[in-house]
Amino acid sequence: MALPNNNPTKTNAWQQLTNHFNEIKDIRIQDLYKDDNRKEDFSLTLNDLSVDFSKNRITSETIKLLVDLAKEVGLQEAIESQFNGEIINVTEGRAVLHTALRSNSEDSVLVDGKNIKPQIQTALRKIRSFSNKVISGKWKGYTGKSITDVVNIGIGGSDLGPDMIVESLQYYKNHLNTHFVSNVDGDHVSEIMKHLDPETTLFVIVSKTFTTQETITNAETLKNWFLKSATIFDIPKHFVAVSTNLEAVDNFGIDKKNVFPMWNWVGGRFSLWSAVGLSISLSVGFDNYRALLDGAEEMDIHFRNTEFENNIPVVLALLSIWYNNFYMAETEAVLPYSQYLKKLPDYLQQAIMESNGKGVDRNGDKIDYQTGTIVWGSTGTNMQHAFMQLVHQGTKLIPADFIGYKESLYGLTDHHKKLMANYYGQMDALAFGKTKEDVHLELQVSGNADKINTLLPFKVFEGNRPSNAIMFDKLTPKSLGKLVALYEHKIYTQGILWNIYSYDQFGVELGKELAKKLLNKQ
Ligand code: F6P
Fold this sequence. Notes:
Layout: H1 12-24, H2 29-32, H3 38-41, E1 43-46, E2 49-52, H4 60-72, H5 75-83, H6 98-101, E3 110-111, E4 114-115, H7 117-136, E5 149-153, H8 160-168, E6 177-181, H9 186-193, E7 201-206, H10 213-227, H11 235-238, E8 239-243, H12 246-252, E9 259-261, H13 278-284, H14 286-305, H15 312-326, E10 331-336, H16 344-356, E11 374-377, H17 388-393, E12 400-405, H18 413-432, H19 436-445, H20 452-459, E13 467-472, H21 477-497, H22 509-521
Parallel strand pairs: 5-6, 5-7, 7-8, 8-9, 10-11, 10-12, 12-13
Antiparallel strand pairs: 1-2, 2-13, 3-4
Helix pairs in contact: 1-4, 4-15, 7-13, 8-13, 8-16, 13-14, 14-21, 15-21, 16-21, 19-20
Bound molecules: 6-O-phosphono-beta-D-fructofuranose.
Subcellular location: Cytoplasm
Function: Catalyzes the reversible isomerization of glucose-6-phosphate to fructose-6-phosphate.
Keywords: Cytoplasm, Gluconeogenesis, Glycolysis, Isomerase
């Protein structure tokens, strides 16, 4: 079944949302919070995850109308089409099945009439066996020494996902040093080479196409560096590849046995769940990698089977559309209160902006409404001392996701109490602000009554700035998998509502072509 194709702005629900928006647009979170049940009524849970979306400029009518919109544009059918392996990436003629990669179910998923589950299981077994050999030291380099360093060579989806996950799961990391080379900037690879010993380094070249300029250039540079100490016969012990392009991998000199598969039905930015995640499995062990997949699967099941009003990715997608298309907010902040998640905003920028940064709809017609949001962010509490001034008192409306954990990993409770006090404090400050009266009183009490006339307007916080509190018990591989899958499903939901194709990325091509032409002229 083809994806539904509806201009969202021409639907009944959109008309109703427009009327509703005009009625409530000046609503204040401060006033909405006079309802004692507000928090309870606007919270959702999924085992160790809770999402409190009470600090938004919405009423239950807003949610109802947004859900009506999702129903009217055929979101449920679109979700089924994705999970069933239909060709929903129409412009590239592909199914989109990163969900199949993490599925534990025995049910078949067909692509071109063939069940893909057995190939996924084979790839997982290969990842497990290879990771075990390298981690245990049984895999030896060309001089008989065990591997100490793993270098992931890739860019975009072949880098950002594994890099972000390895960084986020540092607590679970083993003895292997993991490095990521992505930029074609030679200084990047040179800095990394300084720390490597050819006898004990394993290179994982990750490129779905195996033609990406940056990756192939870095891989060649590292191979040449390696060959200064070793011979081409030593390559199989030190170079492995993850790719769909077997011929190019072979030409590069990589042993067939050392090739891990990629498939056309997995998009680059959704590929960390495939063998693209090999560096993750090498860094934290296969069991932790599997737990990451299991967490994602838990979110998949929730997304597929839960009615929209209680469906976490759907509700977050709808809220984002509310701000993007009605309040005309252009950006969204992602603010994790865990230093481990410092690479999450970068990762999400590719996932969200490469997917939904589209200006034509599913008919190929130019769109006259806003699509993809601009996503940015950094970790709390550091960002409180950086950009939060603008979020609190600037002229722009910036809805923000605050991601937090009930427990810290090392158990420094004093730190964690402070961290979480800031987490809640920021959201309260954004929502409730500080009134003129409060500032007046504060200046008086602090003996600064003489400054009231000059300082008062600068110290007022208007509040009414929206946020979502996304809270897990603890940062584990499983909870991280759930978090990433949550955002993946939010992306797809928004793409369906905006009537765009989320799974192609033609917008990255022109710059690449022009760079190639310039290079050929030199
Ligand atoms: O930036 C465009 C893109 O195609 C991404 O979608 C992809 O993740 C990245 O390039 C890398 O591509 P490849 O894995 O083929 O090297």
